[in-house]
Amino acid sequence: MEFLTQLIATLAVVSLTGCSVARTNKDGTFELLILHNNDMHAKFEQTSQLSGVCTEADMNAGKCYGGFARVAYLVKQARKAAQTGEGPPVLYLNAGDTYTGSPWFAQYKWKIAAEFINALQPDAVSLGNHEFDAGVSGLSPFIENLTCPVLAANLILNKVPELEREENLKKTIVLDVNGNKIGIVGYLTPTTKFEAKPNDVEYIDEIEALNSEMKNLQDQGVKIKIALGHSGFSKDMQIAKEVEGLDLVIGGHTNTFLWNGTTPDSEHADGPYPTYVQQSSGRLVPVVQAYAYTKYLGQLKINFNSDGEIVNISGAPILLNDAIPQDPEIIAIIEKYKKDVSGTSQDIMGTTLVFLDGSCRTKECNLGNLITDSMVYRYAVDYKGEHWTDAPIAILQGGGIRSSILHAVTPSNVTKGDLLSVLPFDGNMVALTMNGTVLLQILESSVRKHGTVNFRGEFLQMSGLRVTYDLKKPPGSRVIIAESRCWTCNIPSYSKVENKQIFKVLMPGFMSNGGDDYSMVKNLPKQKLNFSELMATEYYVQRHSPIYPEIEGRIQFHEGDQTSSCGGSKLSLISLVICFTNAFMF
């Protein structure tokens, strides 16, 4: 087994380095290896198959993946080959969202993120929307302490002096690689304004900013130009189409998995790797992402001619399974932090008899049902009124659920670390009072972008509501049935949501402040609670184990004469892939 592991690792390195020694060919072409990843989400340590916590049982079953140590191993091997002449020169680029997604980050914030990124030594990173999760004050020291440049060309920072004066935050860098100038320009989705802690950063459109930077690079005689950013696959393709002079787009944000042929693990391919976009001039511009959570490392081998045009391109993402060794220097950093993190992360909250599915961005999921039921339960335990509660409804954005809980054995323990990986965000819950009109607006907002490539995490999981959507109707009129659970009744039951009814609804504090573009709730009367969704879920699991949450038809989709729980039978191919994949985006 040890021999097989080493053989597979060796083959992975060979795929990175190739066999040719000459990197500037007689015909003037220049060979470059680009390694890239995106949406690492603080998965510093290796993870389970679906990017949750890797348990001892998972390790014994050979079902642990990714982690910064495996990324570092392959990057170092490629760079070593470049230094000895056995491989081409290497660029390692990261397309943002290093923050948020593990107990490690929950405890150490920017400090641990900076230390691990510095250990990987990327040539450049772009910002991701989650880098703003702790506001500007939680981002500025991260940028300041990185040893590589941080790129974003479309930010307006005149109201944010902490970032405006940060020398390490740049629009563009130019690297000299074997005498070839390579320009790398960063970009970040303007929707960050709605997806992160409120701040004064403003944005211009990515394409406008990139076109301006392309002109600057052209004036400097830079022939090879790369866009590195975090706006989602649909925007990446639009950038490739509309930004003249661009040679390559490396993106993130939508955790898009691109692959040619049969996929190597549980992910479904959203398109070929790379995906080509044709510009009006006829030039083909490749676009890549590398899924998320450190499970894959993207690799592109590119030959450029003397004019900086791509003449040949090959490659595929590398699955970082347990056949890929882990870099000992990264392991040493993990061990340094592990004692403090593991102290609470390994605390057992309870057990589950079933897979807890966190793919909650397009459909009802049993993990979403568990969390929202926990929110209602935890509030009801403290309620002292004359009824069973006065807040029978809880809602939570699917994007707030960051991983599944799937272990190699069933039943399995649910640890605090598992739940921290699922619910890594800070902030307590809030109870908002609203009428039925606003509640229906919230439900409409949940599916306003459903079925599009660039939908965000706003799709709602819910307890105390039953909703049927018709996605063939235009956004704003897709709710065809909405029923709510009563709170004044002796036996809870459901009835139609009426416009003038008054409801108390539980939700995350982030959402209550208008996050994910739920602006209709921002100014409503609110009651701040002394517990978070994480605390509520821990409380519930401790008291109800073993748990076995199910799909109950809380969210349904109407299509013709049929109603289903998974987005309808005639959605676009992309929607169906999203519906059935176990990816957890943004």
How would you explain this protein's 3D organization?
It is a single chain. The protein is of the alpha/beta class. Helix content is 30%, strand content 23%. It contains 16 helices and 28 strands. Strands 1, 2, 3, 4, 6, 14, 15 and 16 form an 8-stranded mixed sheet that branches. A hairpin with an 8-residue loop joins strand 23 and strand 24 (494-496). Helix 4 runs parallel beside helix 5 and helix 11 (366-382) crosses helix 15. Residues 1-11 and 568-585 have low confidence and may be disordered.
Supply the CATH superfamily name of the largest domain: Metallo-dependent phosphatases
Number of helices: 16
Can you give the helix content as a percent range? 25-40%
- What is the number of beta strands? 28
Ranges where pLDDT stays below 50 over 5 or more residues in a row are 1-11, 568-585
Radius of gyration: 24 Å
**Annotated CATH architecture of the largest domain:** 4-Layer Sandwich
For this structure, the CATH topology of the largest domain is Purple Acid Phosphatase, chain A, domain 2
The secondary-structure class comes to alpha/beta
C-alpha geometry = globular
Which CATH top level class of the largest domain fits? Alpha Beta
- Total discrete domains: 2
Coiled coil: 200-227
Keywords: Coiled coil, Hydrolase, Metal-binding, Nucleotide-binding, Signal
GO cellular component, one term: plasma membrane
Domain Calcineurin-like phosphoesterase: 34-254
